[in-house]
Design a protein that fits this description.
Blueprint (H helix, E strand, L loop, with lengths): L1 H16 L4 E3 L3 E5 L4 E3 L2 E3 L9 E8 L6 E7 L2 E4 L9 E3 L10 E3 L8 E8 L9 E8 L6 H54 L7 H20 L1
Parallel strand pairs: 2-11
Antiparallel strand pairs: 1-4, 3-9, 5-6, 5-10, 6-7, 8-9, 10-11
Length: 226
């Protein structure tokens, strides 16, 4: 029992002294033949950046199962590949003090297609899973799926905005038409009501009508005598 307790305490002390480190690289990079590309590598650690921080890069060509070491940084010194496929084409452009272990590969070729893996240690944090990035070299960089997806989303949003604008425009035109009809109908009813209040014209007085007719005959007979 005592041995078990000692083992548990020992494991706890080791876990406190040695915590996990998380390493980050890109997922996939595209580049043109003859161009240069920066492959980024950084890490997260709860510890301050140690003077003994290390970075290592390995490369596995497409179609191969074996990886080769192409870069190593330790003790403040960078060791570059001087015999392999990246001889005179690889440069260390990172900043270990800022947890940056990036490398630059120059004058890319189709044969550079493959997987690059970065590993980092920040003693006493040395437990962590290396991170990998795949490099694809093209004569012409293809349109990425994200660009196509973004374009599709933009078109859909544009169509939705257009539909909403048309909908509200139609509502406005219909409301305007209904308002005009209501105003016209109300004006017509008001005019008919005014005529009904005035009533029909009173009938003419028969005596006045007879006198007017007699006067008219007298005027006509005078004209005949002349």
């Amino acid at each position: 029992m005592l041995a078990v307790l000692v083992s548990i305490v020992s494991l706890g002390i080791v876990a406190q002294q040695c915590q996990a480190i998380v390493i980050y690289t890109g997922w996939e990079r595209h580049a043109l033949v003859g161009s240069d590309i920066r492959l980024s590598c950084s890490f997260f650690s709860w510890r301050w950046t140690s003077e003994e921080v290390t970075f290592s890069w390995t490369y596995r060509p497409d179609g191969s199962r074996d990886s080769i070491s192409i870069f190593h940084y330790t003790g403040g010194e960078a060791y570059l590949d001087n015999k392999g496929p990246f001889k005179d084409r690889l440069e260390f452009v990172g900043n270990p003090g800022r947890r940056d272990g990036s490398i630059l590969i120059k004058n890319l070729d189709f044969n550079d297609n493959g997987t690059f893996t970065c590993d980092a240690k920040n003693p006493p944090d040395i437990v962590g899973r290396p991170s990998s990035v795949r490099l694809l070299v093209f004569e012409k960089v293809p349109i990425q799926a994200g660009v196509i997806t973004g374009a599709i989303i933009g078109v859909v949003l544009g169509l939705l905005v257009l539909v909403v604008v048309i909908y509200y425009l139609m509502r406005f035109l219909v409301a305007r038409r209904v308002f005009s009809l209501n105003v016209s109908k109300h004006g017509k009813k008001k005019k008919e009501g005014s005529q009904q209040r005035q009533g029909p014209a009173p009938p003419a007085d028969p005596s006045k009508v007879k006198a007017a007719a007699s006067e008219k005959k007298k005027q006509e007979s005078r004209k005949d005598k002349k």
